[in-house]
Amino acid sequence: MISVRVPATSANLGPGYDAVGLALSLSMRIAMDRAQHPEIEVSGTGDELVPRGPEHPAYRAARFVAEVVGEPDAHFRLVQENDIPPTRGLGGSAAALVGGAVAANELFGGQIAAPDLLNIVCELDGHPDNAAPALLGGLVIGTLTPTGISAVRLEPKDLAVAVAVPDFAVSTTAARRALPENVPHRDAVFNVGRSGLLLGALATGEYDLLRVAMQDRLHQPYRAHLVPGLEGVIEAALEAGAHGACLSGSGPTVLAFTPRDLAPAVAAAMKKTFEARGTTARSWALDVDLMGARVEP
């Protein structure tokens, strides 16, 4: 049986909507072997929310890989052990999809080269901002083009991440419907400038710029009503010493970049702010995962 460890991810970082994603040191394990018919076992965080049939994202990805390598009749036994809270904006579905694709590729002897595997997982997920960092690790800036994914990977140094995960889900459909069809030109200019500043700050280590660089006008203001207390949680993170903070993916998780020594305090401050509004929340102090999806012994 092939075992693959895949990190959680945070997408839409600040102004980098649908383009910038980060791998986090919270993970799931996807183990897979050939079988006569679909067999799917799930355990861990939110296991009751994960499908047990062929629609499971890891199984779906494995079947796609099987088609690509000329094994259309292949079936699998799949075991998922999960530490990533589902439906919370931490890329759990993308992680499962990446784990299934990597595990299946290993089962078939690694016939698909790394660049092609990247294209496959990004196409299956529909966006590169979760799938690419889940596969590659680090911070990935990517976009889908007619010829495949174009991406740049960075490894931010001396940087920790605090996340606060409230105990309610945000529907991806509702989050997408909240976005307007058109936005003011000045808001687009606002985000373009801050996107450049965000990537420059993360590439050079000038993290004091992140407070400004992580501001956004393209998705957070329109989704704030889906995450009651969002602005207060971000402000609490900044007051506790975070470099910058934002909504993780479509939410409701809030993420903050912090100095390593302040990550636990920032995470606790965000959790406390959610709970002051009557919302139960969990929090973690995490590292940036630089390894991405990896096959385990």
From TrEMBL:
Binding site for ATP: 85-95
Kinase is among the record's keywords: yes
Tagged with keyword Amino-acid biosynthesis: yes
Entry EC no(s): 2.7.1.39
TM annotation in the entry: none
Residue span, GHMP kinase C-terminal domain: 199-275
Pathway: Amino-acid biosynthesis; L-threonine biosynthesis; L-threonine from L-aspartate: step 4/5
Domain GHMP kinase N-terminal: 58-138
Catalytic activity field: L-homoserine + ATP = O-phospho-L-homoserine + ADP + H(+)
Pfam families named among the record's database cross-references: GHMP_kinases_C, GHMP_kinases_N
Gene Ontology terms: biological process: threonine biosynthetic process
GO molecular function: ATP binding; homoserine kinase activity
GO cellular component: cytoplasm
Principal localisation: cytoplasm
Keyword set, alphabetical order: Amino-acid biosynthesis, ATP-binding, Cytoplasm, Kinase, Nucleotide-binding, Threonine biosynthesis, Transferase
Gene3D superfamilies per the UniProt record, alphabetical: 3.30.230.10, GHMP kinase, C-terminal domain
Top EC category: transferase
Compartments, record wording: Cytoplasm
Function recorded in the entry: Catalyzes the ATP-dependent phosphorylation of L-homoserine to L-homoserine phosphate.
Family the entry assigns: Belongs to the GHMP kinase family. Homoserine kinase subfamily.
Protein's UniProt name: Homoserine kinase
Organism: uncultured Rubrobacteraceae bacterium
Lineage of the species this protein comes from: Bacteria, Bacillati, Actinomycetota, Rubrobacteria, Rubrobacterales
Protein's gene: thrB
